[in-house]
Amino acid sequence: MQLVNNESSTKNEITLSIIVPVYNEREMLPIFHHHLAKVLSTLSEDSVEVIYVNDGSCDDSWDVMLDLNSHYANIECINLSRNFGKEAAMTAGIDNAKGQAVILLDADLQDPPELIPDMLTAWRKGFDVVNMKRSARLGESKFKCWSAHVYYRLLDHLSEVPLQKDVGDFRLLSRRVIEDIKKLSERSRYMKGILSWPGYKQTTISFERPERVAGETKWSFIQLVKLGLSGITAFSVKPLRISTWAGVLISASAFGYGLWILLKTLVFGEAVAGYPSMMLIQLFLGGVQLLAIGVLGEYVGRIYAEAKARPIYLIMDKERNTLVSSMVEK
Ligand code: UDP
Ligand code: MG
Questions:
Q1: How far apart, in whole angstroms, are the C-alpha atoms of residue 5 and residue 73?
Q2: Are 130 and 252 in a shared domain?
Q3: Ligand 2 centre and the CA of 255: distance in Å?
Q4: Is the CB of residue 4 less than 8 Å from the CB of residue 49?
Q5: Structural domains counted in the chain
Q6: Ligand 1 centre distance from Cα of residue 170 (Å)
Q7: Which domain holds residue 266?
Q8: Whether 80 and 196 share a structural domain
Q9: Residue 231 domain-assigned (yes or no)
């Protein structure tokens, strides 16, 4: 592996950038880096940088990063000013990466660094994007696996951009894809969609996603639902169209039913059915209307966030060492 000792001399030399978003991973970081360094030391011809993005951790993950930075070469540590979320942390990494190929990795070893050589081989064959498909998810609840399975398929169906099923953020992207992704400046970022948007030559490698090695998942059920909704509204306007069609269907049925009641009353002289059916229809229509307003609100909220055009993240500190040593511990 070629070694890199300062920023100015490395601008165009770095082959591979590895981006790791970090939120409260103090336990995981040393284990992760040790593991990663072992794999990177086998990549003979590559100059590599590892970019750790501290996403406003409440524990001392930043200090652990700085410690790694003082012991290992080719590390860049970015400290965001608060917790902006994984999507923003990955964006900060992408904006700062200098490599010709970029890989996004979780810090909990659920995206095995051992697969990096295979990803690089595919990239060298000329693929711009190497998608890592989860053929199995070990240690996750049946409900999470099932809901992820349904969600990926639903989103692929709704989205105007083809999205890869069962592929998370773990992928390799070539420099030209990264440059295109940097042009997507939207505030509400659904990275799985954003990373798929440019297209280019793609290939897929399957792997079994292992359990988290230490610590626990940072996503609550509500956060996952929010991320899911954000994915749908960011990459599809079909929910708006569905509510329009629901409106057309309900109005047409109501018109037909109204005619039927009129006929019954005028021709057969039957009394109009009373209170219960009226209430039922009113409540049903009220529910449908609120739902449609809610869907509309989701999109209006997005326009509001985009109109404010706030930065996606803020960087508080940035550290890059000038060590000339290998990725493995001194
Ligand atoms: N993460 C982050 N910011 C957050 C939440 C998570 O940077 O607000 C990082 C986290 O440290 C880890 C990666 O995103 O490196 C994936 O998080 P996690 O393992 O909790 O997600 P899961 O694997 O359960 O989907
Ligand atoms: Mg994880």
A1: 7
A2: no
A3: 52
A4: yes
A5: 2
A6: 12
A7: 237-308
A8: yes
A9: no
ipTM of the complex: 0.94
pLDDT of residue 289: 86
Each residue's pLDDT tens digit, 140-184: 788 888 888 888 888 888 888 888 888 889 999 999 999 999 999
Ligand 1: residues whose CB is within 6 Å? 21-23, 25, 55, 83, 85-86, 89, 106-108, 110, 212, 217-219
Phi, psi of 97 (to 5 degrees): -75, 140
> What is the number of alpha carbons within 13 Å of residue 211 lying toward its C-beta?
8
Question: Best substitution site from 218, 225, 227, 312 to test ligand 1's pocket, by max atoms within 8 Å of Cβ?
Answer: 218
245 and 261 inside one domain:
yes
Ligand nearest to the CA of 86: 1
Q: Are residues 188 and 293 in the same domain?
A: no
Q: Same domain, yes or no, for 47 and 120? A: yes
207: CA distance to ligand 2 center in Å?
15
Of all protein residues, the one whose alpha carbon is nearest to atom 16 of ligand 1 is 106
Q: 219 to each of 93, 139, 223, 308, how far by Cα in Å?
A: 20, 15, 6, 26
Q: 172 with 280, same domain?
A: no
